[in-house]
Amino acid sequence: MKSLRRPYSEQRPTDLGGGVWSVPVPIPGNPLGYTLIYALESPSGPVLVDAGWNHPDAWLALRDGLAAAGMDIREVRGVVVTHFHPDHAGLAGQVRQESGAWIAMHEADAALIRSMHETGESVRRVERAGMLRRAGAGAAEVEAATAYRPEPPATPDRTLGDGDLVDLPGRRLRTVWTPGHTPGHICLHLEDADRLFTGDHVLPRITPHIGIYPYDRTDMDPLGDFLASLEKVAGLGTLEALPAHEWIFQDTAGRAREIGTHHEEKLTALTTLLAEAGEPLTIWEIASRMTWKRPWDDLPSMLRGLAAAEAAAHLRALEVRGQVRRAPKGDMVRFAVHS
């Protein structure tokens, strides 16, 4: 089954066979356009994989899309969230309120949501500003990055660990922990149908954002985790991929290997960039010299912040491999090739 990416206006709820439906839910104002929500039938009510962005239009699309598939949103049994990002977890709380459904996700992302609720947006805004200044960002970028952010999603009722089966009567839906895009990102292997719900981990055309926050932390290696997770998914074999964006495709393993190769090439290019610089550079300087889909000068401040996070994740991976080193100067973090 393959459904090439089309504008949201052309998307419709689709019967994928085997008791699985896809329901496109819009992401207002986002170039991705929509999230593909999957509904799995069960004798005790449908279980959703992700829920979509928290917006009235998205809620109507989810409710009406399920109705078109012969399902009542008030009878949803549970929502499995692949990761905490708002285009995946945003409506989970409203589904729970409407139906009494449980919400499940990996503990690492559940912990992040709890932290967001505990600290509040004002504290997170100050933390983002400090992170950007240490990276070498200018005042405009700091101001843009500290603008309003959506409210954190609902705290889950249940957590899932690697290898756990989801509460889906009559089916075998197994959790595959795939950290990288977020610390608690999960894929879901429908073992009785050789299908893999890939969330944002493996997409058919684009690659997910792999960043590190704060940029200068040293207690994690998200790109290293992501590359290991790609190998893990490739090891599951040639499964049909049901991703959260773009379109359904075959051969998850082949695409996972392609994405891994892409990042290894990016790491090589980054090492060359630092060697040619001849001096330590800030994360912001490095990001501005890297190759992106659009020229750095054309990127709005928010996208520059995301690019810097990706640069930082690649730098951290190279640091773990012993290929680059930190060269702090004042409050700023700088990187150079390891001599």
UniProtKB/TrEMBL annotation:
<dbReference type="InterPro" id="IPR036866">
    <property type="entry name" value="RibonucZ/Hydroxyglut_hydro"/>
</dbReference>
<keyword id="KW-0378">Hydrolase</keyword>
<protein>
    <submittedName>
        <fullName>Glyoxylase-like metal-dependent hydrolase (Beta-lactamase superfamily II)</fullName>
    </submittedName>
</protein>
<dbReference type="InterPro" id="IPR050662">
    <property type="entry name" value="Sec-metab_biosynth-thioest"/>
</dbReference>
<feature type="domain" description="Metallo-beta-lactamase">
    <location>
        <begin position="34"/>
        <end position="245"/>
    </location>
</feature>
<dbReference type="GO" id="GO:0016787">
    <property type="term" value="F:hydrolase activity"/>
</dbReference>
<dbReference type="InterPro" id="IPR001279">
    <property type="entry name" value="Metallo-B-lactamas"/>
</dbReference>
<dbReference type="InterPro" id="IPR036388">
    <property type="entry name" value="WH-like_DNA-bd_sf"/>
</dbReference>
<dbReference type="Pfam" id="PF00753">
    <property type="entry name" value="Lactamase_B"/>
</dbReference>
